[in-house]
Amino acid sequence: MNMNMRLACINAILLCTWICAAASCAGAPDEERTGELSVNLVGAAQSGVIYRLRNAIITVDGPSSAVFNTEGDPTQTSLSANVVVGNYVATVQGGWQLERIDGPSATPVDATLVSENPTSTSASAGA
10 falls in which pLDDT band (50, 70, 90)? Predict the structure, then answer.
């Protein structure tokens, strides 16, 4: 796989997969409204090759704080946290590794983060 495809895969995993899912607020009006931030740890290149993010710590700062650690359960395909609605900044700390998944085995690959780091996102509450 060429470097451009690897970079596109990293972008797909680290930038495009930040999901701010809407969550409803069922409590009293004075309760803080919450949403969910989620990051995919696994992604597929256009060729169908599957990649997984490893050894990564992603810190999220805003109205709430969260820390995602890919090594808590290396087999997880995503991590998420419930947060107070608002704007957030997510930072991928150095030392992360991208692996190519080949059946039951994983092979580290050379990769470079080309998306903005830190990156901005937001969480909103639904109806």
Answer: low
**Residues linked to residue 43 through DSSP beta bridges, in sequence order:** 51
pLDDT, position 57: 97
Structure tokens that stand for 101 in this block = 């998944």
Give the span between the Cα atoms of 41 and 52, in whole angstroms. 6
Residue % of the chain over a pLDDT of 70 = 74
Q: Where are the domains of the chain?
A: 3-22+31-126
**pLDDT per residue as tens digits for the range 70-94:** 999 989 999 999 999 999 999 999 9
Is 9 strand, coil or helix? Answer: helix
The total of other beta-carbon atoms located within 10 Å of residue 2's CB is: 8
